[in-house]
Amino acid sequence: MKRDAGGRKLPEEKFENPLRIGVLEKAQRGLLALLVLIGVAILFVTARAAFGSSPPQRGTGSAGPTVYPTLPPITGLPSRRVGIVAGHWQNDSGAVCPDGLTEVEINLDIARRTAALLIEAGYDVEVLAEFSPKLEGYQADALISIHTDSCNIPEASGFKVARVLQSTLPEEEDRLVECLRREYERATGLYYHKDSITYDMQEYHAFYEIAPQTPAAIIETGFMDADRTLLTEHPDLAAEGIARGIICFLETR
Ligand SMILES: [Zn+2]
Questions:
Q1: Separation of CA 43 and ligand 1 centre (Å)
Q2: How far is the C-alpha of 160 from the C-alpha of 52, rounded, in Å?
């Protein structure tokens, strides 16, 4: 036991065996080396997984044509179902002008042309009679009813679009109305009557027959007197406006 100058006991120094230190140090170094090796191995494997199997990068020096990734063909577009009611068809003539021009013949012509355009664009479309039994619970991505205003106000020109007054799909149906308004205006150049939507349009019977989840709208394509040239000589323009309006609605959801 060691003592200091005052005779107090000094703590015992720990006995260190030099041989044991050597063994421990070697073991520690060995362990460290092993850890470094494992680390390097992990890095190597990770790097191979990340870069080893990737295709050659574009524009990195190698000669030959640039290889772009090949994308799979676009398939499986959802089938879009559209119902088009030809106003008054198979029920009555609708409005009749003094010279015998009937609303139903205009409506049916435009409805069939609209359907043809949409079918050509890949949609699943059917033209329905005014009171078609199919309307009961009708399920589709959109239902449009086509009507035309009478000859009664010779100076009146322009078109109207409306949805049901109390809509269960107000945002959807407002968008449908807006798409129809914009595209029909663009295709025909007709004036849009925003403030003369009638109660009859908003309470149109088919709105209450179709399934509640089917967005629907009614369009009055023009007036049979002032807009007659467009409606009878260029019905393709009216049809194009309606078809584009429906596509605008279906493809921008
Ligand atoms: Zn009508």
A1: 75
A2: 63
